[in-house]
């Protein structure tokens, strides 16, 4: 089973292990790579146009609250480039809070190829979904549904038909899905964040009192969903 082999491949956060560095240390690092990992994108900050300063505060605060509950597991905020504004803001704010950097860190890469291209094994990924849980649109939602194939849409629809802003749903990925086979992803957690884009449904018209509350609920539901898989 190639996904099992991948789980044993040694990696370091933000610094994928080079092939040539084999040795005794690998045994220790290989255990680290068995760690349950949730990779999540910054919810609502691209297509849904949520303010990045406010979003980064909420990410860091909710991560800080959940890190002590993680046990051996870890959380990884992902975006397409290392220079992304949201990754930079979160890194700076997390550093000030002395959050354990082995339990939470940022990572640059496409969320659908973190293992094969980035050397970061994540068994759970979060999706910044739309309320109808439909493929397409753009951003991370389009990428995840496309890479996972029809299996994800079917498994999702068997659970729920829609999401309210601020909520999340954990969907086990069938082992026939290419994302499972190739990347070792066993679960997708769909999250619906607050929307500030007038072109999309349920726009909050810049109401950041409500928006911040809903984004906080969204991350809380996401991290609780991930914790439920660790039990
Ligand atoms: N890998 C990693 N990060 C990504 C990827 C990727 N493949 N693609 C985008 N990001 P967005 P939202 C980052 O727009 O704002 C969809 O159409 C991106 O840079 O995906 O919650 C849905 O159907 C940003 O940091 O989600 C909804 O209608 C983050 O992922 C709507 O967009 C989230 O950007 C949701 O909008």
Features:
231 residues, binds ligand AR6, 9 helices, alpha/beta
Mass-distribution shape: globular
Q: What string gives the helices and strands in order?
A: HHEHEHEHEHHEHEH
Briefly note the structural class of the backbone: alpha/beta
What is the spatial order of strands in the main beta sheet? 3-2-1-4-6-5
Helix content: 40-55%
Largest sheet: 6 strands, mixed
Termini separation comes to: 24 Å
Average pLDDT works out at: 88
- Strand elements, count: 6
Question: Regions with pLDDT < 50 over 5+ consecutive residues?
Answer: 1-32
Strand content range: 5-15%
What is the number of helices?
A: 9
- Ligands and ions found: ligand AR6
Instruction: Give the count of structural domains.
Output: 1
| Estimated radius of gyration | 17 Å
Summarize the structure.
The protein has 231 residues and is an alpha/beta fold. It has helices at 2-7, 25-32, 52-66, 85-96, 114-118, 139-148, 150-159, 178-183, 208-230; strands spanning 37-41, 74-79, 104-108, 124-128, 168-172, 187-191.
Structural description of this entry:
With 231 residues, this protein is of the alpha/beta class. The protein has one domain (2-13, 22-230). The protein is built from nine helices and six strands. The protein has helices spanning 2-7, 25-32, 52-66, 85-96, 114-118, 139-148, 150-159, 178-183, 208-230, and strands at 37-41, 74-79, 104-108, 124-128, 168-172, 187-191. It has a six-stranded mixed β-sheet with strand order 3-2-1-4-6-5, sandwiched between helices. Helix 4 (85-96) links the parallel strand 2 (74-79) and strand 3. The two termini are 24 Å apart. Residues 1-32 have low confidence and may be disordered. The protein binds ligand AR6. Ligand AR6 binds next to strand 2 and helix 6. Ligand AR6 is lined by residues 41-48, 78-80, 86, 110-112, 128, 130, 137-141, 143, 193, 200.
